[in-house]
Amino acid sequence: MSLAPADSLPRAAIDAKLLSLLSGVAVGLGVLLSGFVIREPAPYELYMVGLIAVWALFGLKVSRPVALLLTLFVLFNIGGLLSMSQMDRLFDTPLYLAVSFFLALTSVFFAAVTATRPELYRLIFNTWTVAAVVTSVLGIAGYFGLFPGAEMFTKYERAAGAFQDPNVFGPYLALPGMWLLYLFLTGSPARMLACLVPLLIVTAGVFLSFSRGAWGLFGLTT
Questions:
Q1: For residues 36 and 32, what is the distance between their CA atoms, to the nearest angstrom?
Q2: How far is 148 from 111, CA to CA, in rounded Å?
Q3: Which of 41, 129, 136, 200 is deepest in the core (most CB within 10 A)?
Q4: Helices and strands (H and E) in the chain: how many
Q5: What pTM value is reported for the model?
Q6: Euclidean distance between the first and final Cα of the chain, in Å?
Q7: Tens digit of pLDDT for each residue in 142-188?
């Protein structure tokens, strides 16, 4: 039985650690960009297309549960394609279907990645929370006109943050809000104080979106 050279083991361990760090940063950046989709194509969309392609080339593993999710999404989007045959006016429908398919792929990607690396959950939650706080601040600033040009972060006199639609902005904040509430209720007094301000900011963002869906989701999960 041959043994590997002693100096090769630390090098392999260092390479694995570096790869794990880089992949974590790549996923975290994608989650961070998800809070800023005020224009299309958004940086998030372009970045995720590249990230999914690169990850697929270097070993994206799709487990059976994730494969089932992929199958359901494919069937869902096939239904969308079939529905086009019943429409008199298409116009932007292909774009909506493309966005639907893209979001399905990102869902499958995150499910596959976290299935093999569950330690990324905390990174995803924390990064999503940072994006939620920033986009909430923009939405609040836009609603109250806190600086010149802030109105670009509102739509229909409702806070929209860095999103095109308040009805997307509001629900986006629900999970980070619940994460902050969880940390607030279960942490030490110091962590409670640290979570209080961002929790209030995200809650204000949900409220000022005036999205009934976001209000219901946020209230029910609370």
A1: 8
A2: 41
A3: 136
A4: 9, 2
A5: 0.86
A6: 59
A7: 999 999 999 999 999 999 999 999 999 999 999 999 999 999 999 88
